[in-house]
Design a protein that fits this description.
single chain; 302 residues; mainly alpha; MetI-like fold; 2 domains; two-stranded antiparallel sheet
Length: 302
């Protein structure tokens, strides 16, 4: 009987494994067709010189070699890193501030949560069009409001600094709601007993925030930081609609530059090479996130 039972176990395990693979096969097929295959083709196209219409010419690493001497590429890379370095910390800080405000019993709390989260569900194209109208130098609402308080009009579209500022402000407006929701969930997960115990020990509100709230938000902060960096590196629609990468490539990022090279200049191979560089940067970001997660929770890596 025992021998028969042992013989049946491997067969049962195989049937269980087969059932599991059958259940996830639709997701695997979708992932392979719409994620893995395009990624592989991007690597292949990046080694070619092609416009997408005629025959392709294999150039090996020629496109990548050309990137090294491309000043606009380096400008786009610097803009991408700077864009992430500004929007991610500010987005975290503003999201946490709003979450802490709405975590307390404030008037119309549910309505305020909805208002802050509403931009998240708006498409990037729609948000960009709204911002394009708001930051218009001639008829924009923002300049009108600045004029009312005596600050005068701002060159949102013709000044490199102000153009990037408008992109940052738009990004914060769109992303603050998501950060708020994640931080709200994390705040509500911190046991109230921690605050009561710290208050008994004589801790004030600042000390409670530093020693109770911030440690309790560690996992959420790491997640939002990595997620924000990934979104910043993949930025395209907001910037393309609002500024188009201008003026003078001042707001050009890797996503918009890759699109312009692949579809406007019809340099598909060169645009694919930029996309590969962007992908490798994201891999580095994910590697850093994995390393940080293992350091925070060493038992997960075992």
């Amino acid at each position: 009987m025992a021998a028969t039972s042992r013989k049946r176990r491997p067969a049962a395990m195989r049937r269980e494994a087969l059932t599991g693979y059958l259940l996830i096969s639709p997701n695997l097929i979708v992932f392979g067709v719409f994620m893995l295959l395009p990624l592989v083709l991007t690597f292949v196209i990046s080694t070619q010189e092609t416009s997408g219409l005629g025959p392709a010419e294999w150039v090996g690493l020629g496109n990548y070699t050309e990137l090294v001497s491309d000043g606009i590429f380096w400008r786009s890379l610097i803009n991408t890193i700077g864009y992430a370095a500004v929007t991610v910390p500010l987005g975290l800080a503003l999201g946490l501030a709003v979450a802490m405000l709405l975590n307390n019993a404030v008037w119309l709390r549910d309505v305020m949560r909805t208002i802050y989260y509403l931009p998240v569900v708006i498409s990037g194209v729609a948000a960009g069009l709204i911002a394009q109208w708001m930051f218009n130098e001639n008829i924009g609402v923002v300049n009108e409001l600045l004029g009312v308080v005596g600050l005068g009009p701002v060159s949102w579209q013709s000044s490199p600094i102000w153009a990037m500022t408008s992109v940052v402000l738009l990004t914060l407006w769109v992303g603050i709601g998501f950060n708020m929701v994640v931080y709200l969930a994390a705040l509500q997960g911190i046991p109230r007993e921690y605050y009561d115990a710290s208050a008994v020990d004589g801790a004030n509100s600042v000390q409670q925030f530093r020693h109770v709230t911030l440690p309790g938000l560690g996992t959420a902060t790491v997640f939002l930081a990595v997620y924000g960096v990934i979104l910043s590196f993949q930025a395209f629609d907001l910037i393309y609609i609002l500024t188009g990468g201008g003026p003078g490539n001042a707001t050009e990022v890797l996503g918009t530059y890759a699109y312009e090279q692949a579809f406007s200049a019809r340099e598909r191979g060169y645009g694919a090479a930029i996309g590969v560089v962007l992908y490798l940067l994201l891999v580095v970001v994910l590697g850093v996130q994995f390393w940080i997660s293992r350091r925070r929770n060493p038992e997960e890596g075992r």
